[in-house]
TrEMBL record:
GO molecular function: 4 iron, 4 sulfur cluster binding; metal ion binding; molybdopterin cofactor binding; oxidoreductase activity
Protein name: Nitrate reductase
Residues of the full protein shown: 1 to 759 of 945
Lineage per the UniProt record: Bacteria, Pseudomonadati, Pseudomonadota, Alphaproteobacteria, Hyphomicrobiales
Keywords: 4Fe-4S, Iron, Iron-sulfur, Metal-binding, Molybdenum, Nitrate assimilation, Oxidoreductase
Necessary cofactors: [4Fe-4S] cluster; Mo-bis(molybdopterin guanine dinucleotide)
Amino acid sequence: MQIDEAREVRTTCPYCGVGCGVLAKVAADGEVTVRGDPDHPANFGRLCSKGSALAETIDLDGRLLHPEIHGRRTSWDEALDRVASTFSQTIAEHGPDAVAFYVSGQLLTEDYYVANKLMKGFIGSANIDTNSRLCMASSVAGHRRAFGSDTVPGNYEDLELADLIVLVGSNLAWCHPVLYQRIAAAREKRPEMKVVLVDPRRTMTSDIADLHLAIAPDGDVALFTGLLAYLGQHNALDRAYITAHTAGFGQALFAASALDLAGIAAATGLSEDELGRFYSLFAATAKTVTVYSQGVNQSSSGTDKVNAIINCHLATGRIGKPGTGPFSVTGQPNAMGGREVGGMANMLAAHMEIENPEHRERVQRFWNAPAVAQKPGLKAVEMFQGVADGRIRALWIMATNPVDSMPDADAVQAAIKACPFVVVSDVLASTDTVRHAHVRLPAAAWGEKDGTVTNSERRISRQRAFLDLPGEARPDWWIVAEVARRMGFDEAFSHASAAEIFAEHAALSGFENDSARDFDIGAYARIDGEDYDALAPFQWPAPSPGTPLWPAGHLPLKGGDQLSPPLSPTSDIAEMSDAQTLPISPLEGEMAGRPEGGAWARRPEGPTRFFANGNFYTPDRKARFIAIRPTIETRTSPDYPLILNTGRVRDHWHTMTRTGKSPRLSQHIAEPFAEIHPADARHFGIGDADIVRVSTVHGEALLRALVTARQRPGSVFVPMHWTDQFAVRARVDALVAPITDAISGQPASKNVAARLERF
Ligand code: SF4
């Protein structure tokens, strides 16, 4: 294979919120290879199995390459005209709230920005929501309640500086593997670092845990309110910080003290001894980071869980300082970018609030918009209920597969099938969602499109194109802008490039924004195509003028070996042993500091730290404690005596539309399974590797039994990835109830009453 060096391109992995830098090379014969970018501050050269296999997933097999109307190939002009005229007609006849966009954390920030602008500023509805609603909406709501803004205070470096890391509802080893590797490497250097894992299952992440708390499903509110009460009782509070920088502590402590330790033990399913060990460790360790993910967010009490965690950090002043903080890690590569441009039904652009008339008026003036939305729109679950009951009559789905991934997925499928007009922009021709589209629009895929993404530590990185657009595929921002222009909004959607959109987004962020005065937003608002091409990863907001832009052209790439860890040996479900862990790539020596050379070594200021001296985004600049009472949630019944918990496996992503293309990735776990405790297996007469039927009131799935003591008695874990395209009756989201958190609207995908039988 002859490598065309000139075509090696810096980009980022499209899978998870870690946001790893990737170097992609295209050989003269078109073959693509990837390796981790040694200069990217998220991964310093590491990639996990999914990132390493990216080159195996970019062939054109199954691609949607031309616009189609009712399955017939057509021209872009005809397809775009049809979308624009049908949306305009629907709005004219039924009002702006009769249309909706359902978008995705797979979109780049520029795509998200344009879609949000069209819906909220020009159509005049806020009916734009995203599959990120299923991922981190509870964190957004919790941040806003506590900090006055959706601001994630954590940095990856804090994970290496902490003396205690509490992982809550997070199988980091499989779901954010490079962060797991960074923690494992830091711990090897500093064995005194402690890790506590809070998870109903003993997952691969428990390999680095000193203490595993196999908590009852949704026991987290009780666990962390109990911790707050313990901190109060044991004189472990930072009273000076509480006084200077917070409000509402007294009420929060009073509410948290509703249960004694025995009550907390009953609510969490943990012993008083386990609670005591965790609570005393937390109380005694000043440098503590609490990392949380979907086990916290995907819950009917998700927002309260987030605030119960944040309360403990505020009470100890452990926020905004190196090695401390509550830290929500996001599932998707651009969940954060979507939040920043307001790509959710209850947000406005640039972190402004849709309920705030001043914010609405400011956005209206900036966009010169005719019809800024006046109220929040329908959140994901409500949106598809709106499609089902006819309130939504024209729906545009971008870069996501809700027929397989939404809760109550069969009902969602029926709603989409019955909707009068469905547009899907996608890279694939035949996902379970694309099949129901009246108009199919071929979108550019990873490697073909340009833009930015924001990772879990608010680091903005470029995704760069290194492949030509195949067929007639186009970037999502271009497709949305073309429809907007055909709807009569020519001037506002005349963007010629992703760089122009990025500059407009930055300009809006700084527009009449007092909070932005300390940051160098102007430099980004004036960015031109050349600087955008050279944009180095940076944390937002940029702390000072001169934040690095790589020199025009290219930062010289380092040579060197493939730095990514190899894929682990093939294992099938029966070989999934306790000892199985991800390999650690050979970079441990570099992980705790910045690498030598390269743009980031020149950066003196270190990570952007929010809230170092308080200064929250509330009117009085004080953080808010939220008064939360410990709760016990019971969903089981005699007919449905078990709890279904859904989640990811290491080597697949979402509904496998991309990872399903790689035979190597599919070898890790070859088929969907139901993880069952031996006691439950005995009770239901199920043997290891039997086929079992898992059912709920919403649906059923047929799965291979994996009987293991790693599982908590009374719970069943089923991965979320497999669809009927890959296995028989394996769409687990068809089983998940459309129950949501009342504040965030995030579905509770980890606590569904279920039953089990041998098939
Ligand atoms: Fe990609 Fe996430 Fe793996 Fe990094 S950790 S290579 S971003 S999937």
